[in-house]
From TrEMBL:
The keyword Flavoprotein applies. PROSITE patterns: FAD_PCMH. This is Xanthine dehydrogenase family protein subunit M. Pfam families: FAD_binding_5. The keyword Flavoprotein applies. Residues 1-168 form the FAD-binding PCMH-type domain. One of its GO terms (molecular function) is oxidoreductase activity. Gene3D superfamilies: 3.30.465.10, CO dehydrogenase flavoprotein, C-terminal domain, Uridine Diphospho-n-acetylenolpyruvylglucosamine Reductase, domain 2.
Amino acid sequence: MYDFSYAKPASLADAVKALGAEDAKALAGGQTLIPVLKQRLNRPSVVVDLAGLDLAGIKVTGDAVVIGAMTTHAAIADSPEVQRAFPTLACMAAGIGDIQVRNRGTIGGSLANNDPAADYPAAVLATGATIRTNRRALAAEDFFQGMFTTALEPDEIITEVSFPRPRKAGYQKFRNPASRYAMVGVFVADGPAGLRVTVTGAGQDGVFRHEAMEQALAKSWSADALDGIVTPADGLNSDIHGSAEYRAHLIGVMAKRAVAVAI
C-alpha cells in the first residue's frame, strides 16, 4: 500500500468535510477498496472510515423496505423483516461472496462502487428503488452511469436505499466459481415501477434493462413467454470466463429461471 491518512468521523457532517480533501476515499465494508489499495491501484490521500456514522439498519413499512447504507449483506440476508417483505432481496444478499464478505460488505459500499458484476444494482434498477444521500434522493435510472461510475459527487455519501415492495420478484445468477460475482444475473420484478427485467454481470457499462423481455412478460408472466427472445452479443462483456455470445445465451437462461422462482 501507499501511505495515506486515516479518518474515522463520528458525524455525517465531519465525514463529508473529510471527503472534501483531494483524492479522499470513503471506506464502507472495504471489500473492494482494501484489495485495490494492496494492489497499489489507488492512491488516496486519506481513507475516511464510515463505520462510526450509524448508517446501518432496516425498516419495513407498508410499501417500502428501507435499508441503511452501512447494513451488511449478512444482516439483509438474515433479516426476518426483509425475508417477509422482500424475500428475493434477502436471497440475493445470501448469495453474495462468502460468509466473510457478507459480514463485512455493505449495500451502500456496493452501490457506490457500482461493479458491473455486482448483484444489488440489478435489484435497485428492477424495483425502481431510491438511493438517498446526505444531499438528495436519486432514482435508480439516474444513479448508475456506467462501469464503476455513479451520479455521486466526491463528497457525497449514500445514507439509505428505499425499495418499493414488489408484488413479485425473482433473481438468478450464473456466478463465477471463484469470486461468486455474477457472470450473468437477471432480476425480474413486477411492482410500483412496473414490470422490469434487469441484467448484471453481462453489460460492458454495467446493469441494464432488457426491454424485449419486459414486453414479453407483460403479456404473460411465464418462463415460456421468453422463448425465442435473442439477446444481441454487441456491448456485452467478453473475457477469460466467457465470451459475449456465451453471456448473451446465459441472459435467456437466467431470465427464465428468475421468472420460475419469482415470489
